[in-house]
Structures are given as structure tokens and as C-alpha cells.
Design a protein that fits this description.
20% strand, 450 residues, single chain, 12 helices, Ubiquitin-like (UB roll), alpha+beta, Creatine Kinase, Chain A, domain 2, six-stranded mixed sheet, ten-stranded mixed sheet
Length: 450
């Protein structure tokens, strides 16, 4: 286990007192990206966290409905502990909770070894692979979400906030009648998440906030915090923010697009080559090829729910095929038109329900494999991106994607076989529970006539 410096803990506790912080919230990501954590009194901080903070290991495998799924070393092993060690460098005051600071924790086993199921540790391991190549990944996350308000007349008790058609890319009260987005943008900026812009998205009640690019771990930390913060800020306003992939039949889904490039030890961009095909270097093209080669397995981590696959289809602005193109938003991998330091790929595969650590880690793992193995991408997409004669289809359901992840041994080797085994077990349980649940659609379709 990473040693916790006693002097650093004492200095942190003194800084909390100076800053008027009386509660420290230690948070970390479970498998699906939900934040788990504990509030610690600041005047007991150094004493309480000196040896880490213990949690039950099966918190990784607790479903949204509270089911404890048996993973290796979990329920059947007697529900042993994991240990959360605060990463003091991630300390941030919470603007909307006066007197509260937030710290992200790293997860270890009781014997001191890093937890292989921890999404943050998975990403750290992948970043280390790039370091072995003398490269540092750079990532810029883009997340969409819906804001809902309570409505007792609706079957699920919620309606879309500010619901109106044709408000894509509008700003101000027209699409945000209570300035909820504007207030959120200010809170998120004060939280140190390096958000840069916000806008109303395509569907009624749907918004997008962009985060600036940075090294992969920092970008994932900020995206993880971003999702929790947006939800918490909405709760404080009596609303609900959801990153569910497709919450409504009559509107589009919410995406999680990831911009990715890599630089060398001197900070030079490695995807750019003015003399290369399409202005891309061989490294950039190999990274694209790796992402395409492992796309079926990536779907399990970028589209991780049963609901995710209802977002896909022709003319949805979500990718449908395993392809890439130049400044083409119908392709799975889009290469934006900028070159030089801004040379990058945009992976448009993911939906907003994806765990930021795992989405970024799996993208980097696939790109790493492409770079390591010097893969060559197929011909780029020209024009319309929903013609299945041009490229292979992405998985059309979670079960197929989980099968692909389980079968992709090269990707599992980079992400960690224990992590993949745990994730697959968790998701197979989700599929089993869904297959046994009677949906509203089934009742509507069959009850009257059959």
C-alpha cells in the first residue's frame, strides 16, 4: 500500500483548519462509476485516515438496486475489506457545501497491493504502459446529460426540464428557463474541474458541458467528479440530472465523447505529421487501428448497460459501425480538422453512463495495442456513416459486447484479467436480472390482446 506520510497528513489537517474546512469527504468510484465515500471530521482526519479507511470490498459489486453480486473475493469469501487511501493532491473545497473538502481515494487490498478491480487503478496501470513507450496520453472528456423535474402526472414521476424542441446550441433562458446550466457551470468552475463551456444539446432538457484536456488520470478524475457534482447540484435545486444513455423513447441519447492524443517526454505531439497521410503520424494511425480492432470489446465498457444499445442506430448521431473518418460525426472515430498540437482522435462510441476511468482506460489500452503492434487502419469513411456494407457493425446488445470483452485476451491483459473477470461477472448478473423482469412494454404489447 502506498505509504501515507504522517507529516503530509498533519499539514493537510492544519490547512483544513486554516481554510475553515470541518468535514473531509473521501470518495472513490465503484465499477459503474457511482461515487462511494465517507465523511470524516477534519479535526480527526490525520488520525482516522493514517492507515487508510476500510470499506467492504463488495461495494464494487453492489447494483443500482442494492443487490450484492458475488465477485471473486466478495460475498462468498465473507465480504472482506478494501482500504481507501486519500490522494491528498486531489483535495478540493466543495463550493456548494461550505466547510466541506473532497478528496479522491485510491483503493488497496489489506495486504497493501493495489486493488485490481479499482477503476482508478486500472487506468493507472494503462498509463504506465504508455510511459514504457516514452508517451503521455492526453484526454479531453465531453459529457451530455438530461436535467429532469418532478411531475406526478408522469408514469415515472419526472419530466424533462425546460422541454422544447429545436433548442440545440441555444444559450440563456430559452432552453434553460431557471438558469440551472449557468449556475452549474459556475459551481463546477469554482470546484476546479477546468470546465470550459456549456450548451443546450439536441434534445429537450439535455445539456453538455466540456472539460479541458489534460493528462489521462487528471481528466478521468475531473470527469468522475463532474458527474457526481452535476447530480448533486441538481438535487439541491429539486431536480434530477441523469447520465442514463437513453432515458426517453422520443428523444436521443446522451454521449460521452473522448478526445485523445499523446505527447512525448518533451511535450511534443505524436499524432501530428504534416507529411503523413491526412496529416497524421504513423503513431496516430496505429492508435486509430488499435481502437477499431478492439471496438467490440470497448463497447462493453463505453456502453455498459442494457439501455445503452437503445441509443444506437442509423441517423442517431451515435456511431453504428466500426469505422473512422476525417471530421465526420457519423463515424465511430472522428479525426477533427485541427493539426499540430491539436492533432487528436475523438472516440464517439461511449454513452454518458460509462465509468470515466474505465472508458478512458479501455480507449488507451486499445490505442496502446495498436501502437505497440504497429497496426494499420482500414480505409477511412467517406460520406454517410450508417451503411453496413462499408464496415462491420458494433455490438447491438450488452450480452454481445460482454462476450467480446471476455474473448479479447490482449485487451484484458492490459486492463487486468482480474478486473475483466469481475466486470464481466457483474454485468452478466445485470443481464440475468433484466431477462427476468417484466417491462412496461411487454404489458402494453400483450396484456389486452393475449
Amino acid at each position: 500500500m502506498e505509504h501515507i506520510d504522517e507529516n503530509a497528513l498533519r499539514e493537510a489537517a492544519q490547512q483544513f483548519a486554516t481554510d475553515g474546512i470541518d468535514v473531509v469527504r473521501i470518495g472513490y468510484s465503484d465499477l459503474i462509476g457511482t461515487e462511494r465515500g465517507r465523511d470524516v471530521l477534519a479535526d480527526r482526519f490525520d488520525r482516522t485516515v493514517g492507515d487508510g479507511v476500510a470499506f467492504c470490498r463488495s461495494v464494487y459489486a453492489t447494483s443500482p438496486m442494492g443487490d450484492v453480486i458475488d465477485i471473486a473475493g466478495g460475498l462468498s469469501a465473507g465480504l472482506p475489506d478494501i482500504v481507501v487511501v486519500p490522494d491528498l493532491a486531489t483535495t478540493r473545497p466543495v463550493p456548494w457545501e461550505p466547510g466541506v473538502a473532497h478528496i479522491i481515494g485510491d483503493i488497496y487490498n489489506p495486504d497493501g497491493s493495489p486493488s485490481e478491480e479499482s477503476p482508478r487503478q486500472v487506468l493507472k496501470r494503462v498509463v504506465e504502459r504508455f510511459a514504457e513507450l516514452g508517451m503521455q496520453p492526453v484526454v479531453g472528456p465531453e459529457l451530455e446529460f438530461y436535467v429532469l423535474e418532478q411531475d406526478e402526472t408522469k408514469p415515472n414521476g419526472w419530466r424533462r426540464y425546460g422541454d422544447a424542441t429545436g433548442n440545440v446550441y441555444v444559450a440563456g433562458l430559452k432552453g434553460d428557463p431557471e438558469n440551472t446550466l449557468l449556475a452549474s457551470l459556475r459551481d463546477l468552475a469554482a470546484y476546479g474541474l477546468d470546465v470550459v463551456a456549456a450548451n443546450h444539446e439536441f434534445s429537450g432538457g439535455q445539456f453538455e458541458i466540456n472539460l479541458w484536456h489534460s493528462d489521462a488520470l487528471d481528466a478521468a478524475d475531473r470527469a468522475f467528479r463532474f458527474k457526481s457534482a452535476v447530480q448533486e447540484i441538481s438535487r439541491r435545486r429539486g431536480k434530477m440530472a441523469t447520465f442514463m444513455a437513453k432515458p426517453f423513447n422520443d428523444e436521443g441519447g446522451s454521449g460521452f465523447h473522448i478526445h485523445f492524443s499523446t505527447v512525448d517526454g518533451e511535450g511534443r505531439p505524436l499524432f501530428d505529421d504534416p507529411d503523413g497521410a491526412d496529416g497524421l503520424s504513423e503513431i496516430g494511425r496505429a492508435a486509430i487501428a488499435g481502437v477499431l480492432a478492439h471496438a467490440p470489446a470497448l463497447a462493453a465498457l463505453h456502453n455498459p448497460t442494457v439501455n445503452s444499445y437503445k441509443r444506437f442506430g442509423p441517423d442517431t448521431l451515435a456511431p453504428w459501425l466500426i469505422d473512422w473518418g476525417l471530421d465526420n460525426r457519423s463515424a465511430m472515430v472522428r479525426i477533427p480538422p485541427e493539426r499540430g498540437r491539436a492533432s487528436r482522435m475523438e472516440l464517439r462510441l461511449g454513452d454518458a453512463s460509462a465509468n470515466p476511468y474505465l472508458a478512458i482506460a479501455s480507449l488507451l489500452a486499445a490505442a496502446y495495442l495498436g501502437i505497440r503492434d504497429k497496426l494499420t487502419p482500414p480505409d477511412k469513411l467517406e460520406g454517410y456513416g450508417y451503411d453496413p456494407t462499408k464496415a462491420d457493425r458494433l455490438p447491438s446488445d450488452l450480452g454481445t459486447a460482454i462476450d467480446a470483452l471476455e474473448e479479447d485476451k490482449d485487451l484484458a491483459d492490459i486492463l487486468g484479467p482480474t478486473f475483466v473477470e469481475t466486470f464481466v461477472a457483474y454485468k452478466r448478473n445485470e443481464l440475468e436480472r433484466f431477462s427476468q423482469f417484466v417491462t412496461d412494454w411487454e404489458f402494453r404489447e400483450y396484456a389486452y390482446h393475449l
